[in-house]
Design goal:
Length: about 240
């Protein structure tokens, strides 16, 4: 007759069997959780809106000429004074700035010929208006011919361009991010319905850059603001 196993050996065998069973359960359960964690969808959400510019930079650029630097400096000062007088009834001193002039010596550049009725020195001056009063600035631009009538030779400069800006992004950023997130969740919901599941928590999210551009080429004072977010949502089985 075979020997019956001792009680300690039987208990040890039972514990080993239980350990193997529990280990198998936890491994299987862990694999299920890992598989569930791998189920996610990556979508993009969009938020965009139009907003009026709240700051304008208007460089008023003009030129003067003279045969000597003293006269040139005097004429520059006269031009700046006329532009200031044009702006100051509507805008404060802090909104008006004067840039250093750019002076060209035609003789030094080989473009000055004795006997030709051209003054030797050419100076380009600029007075810049920086204001949040967009309507007043646009009205002043429409009346800028009054400066020409006073003898101010206004020019169009590719270096000094009128700029309309929107500076209130921080105030609307949280709302736009929330809107983009809702838009992304709607897209994820469509994926979830197609796969017979539902949208779970956010796995990973990346906020895109805010882009502020002119709404169109003919109304730069109106801005289009846009942000795209990239979000990963877990997909959960019902």
């Amino acid at each position: 007759m075979p020997e019956r196993p001792s009680l300690p050996a039987a208990i040890l065998g039972l514990l080993l069997a239980c350990g193997v069973a529990l280990g198998g359960y936890w491994i299987g359960n862990g694999l299920l959780r890992a598989r569930a964690a791998d189920r996610f969808v990556t979508v993009r959400g969009l938020s965009e809106r139009d907003a009026p510019a709240d700051l304008v930079l208007w460089p008023i650029v003009f030129t003067v000429t003279a045969d000597d630097l003293g006269t040139l400096h005097q004429r520059l000062g006269q031009g700046v004074a006329k532009i200031r007088a044009f702006l100051e009834p509507q805008f404060g001193p802090a909104e008006i700035g004067v840039a250093a002039p750019r002076i060209t010596d035609r003789e030094a550049q080989g473009g000055y010929i004795q006997g030709i009725d051209l003054e030797r020195f050419v100076a380009e001056g600029a007075v810049t208006l920086r204001t949040a009063d967009i309507d007043a600035a646009r009205a002043a631009m429409a009346r800028s011919n009054a400066l020409v009538k006073q003898g101010v030779a206004l020019i169009r400069s590719y270096e000094y361009q009128t700029q309309y800006m929107f500076t209130g992004l921080e105030a609307i950023k949280p709302e736009m991010i929330a809107e983009a997130t809702r838009d992304a969740r709607r897209a994820a919901q469509q994926f979830a319905e197609d796969s017979g599941s539902r949208v779970g928590a956010i796995r990973h999210a990346t906020q895109g850059y805010f882009n502020i551009a002119d709404r169109d080429p003919f109304s730069p004072e109106q801005k289009s603001i846009r942000v795209v977010t990239t979000i990963q949502f877990f997909l959960v089985d019902d």
